[in-house]
């Protein structure tokens, strides 16, 4: 954090941090920004890494400063520890009254003081901190923290408790999240709250904050604060939501094993709510509100069955549509060697709801490959589909369970429950 001695006496502000994701309930999606941190493109002298939320909030830094890794990543690629230049974007969307700021991080050992994972705004050259941030504390309060600065005249900061370093800086991937619910701030590691909530009157986005840039991996250099502030570990899937996620929602996100990053499932959609189709999502929440209204396909919960003793595989999709439509369904296996094997494709009319099945016979060689696959993908194509529907029409199946003489693959945001 960037703390002045006067603010230290307030036990407040300097450089601290927050987090959030995507939904499946009858409410508007709270996802504001989602940065997978897997790749970048260059335009002139600027390097950009995309935002997958749909809001177009790509992060930028000088050309040649972004470095990504893939070895032992949480969800494929990630921002490597040797990226030492802050990535930034400016948008009023990233100044919500309530929020979650989250990221998956991996760091072996305490990374040092005033190392920023992500945050929004600065008051340079005073260097007293951001509107909100996730960071590693200052000398009096070392450790992972989330903080906000309140909208009072002094921009008083409120700092979360911190978890033990051994719970978060242990060389393993952890989901860290800071939230503000309108009354209190919270810091979570893998969905478990660190310490107790801290009351706050709000988040101040006005004076003395004079630069509204949102940033990842280091405090904004334009603030001209002394010392290194980049986070030396690995960072993946930084997200901002427009509400405070609950502990249960964060635990569901943290439980995702990859390779695809998880979608947010609202707490009211998680067990023990009634779930007639046993997909791990409550009946009232089966339809994803992030799907645009003009998309015909509303629900497509998918399973792939792989037989142990027979050279066969079978796709089963439980679907709902806004109106009957001709749908071309294709499924593929991502093999252990990284290659993709197409298993089957079929055009069929989907009614308003029903179950679609697509079995396929395999050669013995391909059957062996499919049994050791890393994941499966399912895509749905409908003529004259709007581009905005593409994300909803593609599913990645990354979780598996053994059932009788077959392995069943299903989506990362679902539970196996029962088999349809």
Question: Can you describe what's shown?
Answer:
With 420 residues, this protein is mainly beta. The chain has two domains: 5-254, Jelly Rolls (Sandwich); 274-411, Sandwich (Immunoglobulin-like), CATH 2.60.40. The protein contains four helices and 26 strands. The chain has helices at 5-8, 165-168, 247-254, 364-371, and strands spanning 31-35, 41-43, 46-49, 59-62, 68-69, 78-79, 87-89, 99-108, 116-122, 132-135, 145-149, 157-159, 170-180, 184-189, 192-193, 198-199, 211-216, 234-241, 297-307, 312-321, 325-334, 340-350, 353-361, 375-381, 394-403, 406-411. The chain has an eight-stranded antiparallel sheet, covered by helices on one side. Strands 1, 8, 13, 14, 15, 16 and 18 form a seven-stranded antiparallel sheet that branches. Strand 2 (41-43) and strand 3 (46-49) form a beta hairpin. The radius of gyration is 23 Å and the shape is elongated. It starts with a helix and ends in a 9-residue tail after the last strand.
């Amino acid at each position: 954090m960037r703390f002045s001695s006067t603010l230290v006496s307030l036990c407040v502000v300097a450089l601290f941090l927050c987090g959030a994701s995507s939904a499946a309930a009858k409410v508007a999606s709270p996802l504001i920004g989602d940065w997978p941190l897997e790749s970048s493109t260059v335009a002139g002298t600027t390097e950009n890494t995309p935002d997958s939320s749909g809001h177009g909030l790509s992060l930028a830094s000088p050309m040649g400063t972004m470095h990504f890794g893939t070895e032992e990543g949480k969800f494929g690629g990630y921002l490597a520890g040797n990226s030492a230049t802050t990535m930034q974007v400016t948008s009023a969307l990233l100044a919500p009254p309530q929020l979650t700021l989250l990221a998956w991080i991996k760091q072996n050992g305490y990374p040092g003081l005033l190392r920023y994972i992500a945050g929004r705004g600065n008051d340079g050259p005073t260097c007293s901190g951001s509107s909100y941030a996730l960071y590693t504390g200052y000398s009096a309060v070392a450790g992972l923290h989330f903080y906000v600065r309140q909208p009072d005249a002094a921009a008083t900061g409120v700092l979360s408790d911190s978890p033990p370093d051994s719970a978060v800086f242990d060389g393993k991937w952890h989901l860290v999240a800071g939230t503000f619910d309108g009354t209190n701030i919270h810091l979570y590691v893998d969905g478990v709250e660190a310490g107790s909530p801290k009351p706050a009157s709000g988040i101040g986005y006005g004076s003395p904050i004079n630069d509204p840039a949102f940033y990842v991996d280091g405090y904004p250099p334009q603030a001209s604060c002394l010392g290194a502030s980049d986070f030396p570990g690995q960072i993946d899937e930084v997200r901002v939501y427009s509400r405070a996620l609950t502990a249960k929602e964060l635990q569901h996100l943290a439980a995702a094993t990859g390779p695809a990053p998880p979608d947010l499932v609202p707490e009211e959609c998680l067990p023990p709510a009634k779930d007639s189709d046993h997909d791990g999502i409550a009946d009232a929440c089966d339809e994803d509100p992030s799907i645009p209204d003009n998309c015909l396909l509303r629900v497509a919960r998918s399973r792939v069955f792989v037989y142990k003793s027979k050279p066969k595989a079978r796709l089963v999709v439980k679907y709902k549509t806004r109106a009957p439509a001709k749908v071309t369904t294709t499924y593929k296996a991502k093999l252990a060697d990284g290659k993709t094997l197409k298993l089957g494709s079929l055009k069929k009319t989907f009614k308003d709801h029903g179950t679609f099945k697509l079995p396929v016979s395999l050669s013995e060689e391909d059957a062996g490959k499919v049994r050791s696959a890393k994941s499966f993908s399912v895509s749905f194509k409908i003529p004259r589909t709007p581009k905005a529907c593409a994300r909803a029409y593609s599913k990645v199946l990354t979780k598996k369970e053994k059932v009788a003489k077959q392995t069943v693959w299903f989506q990362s945001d679902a539970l196996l429950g029962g088999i349809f």
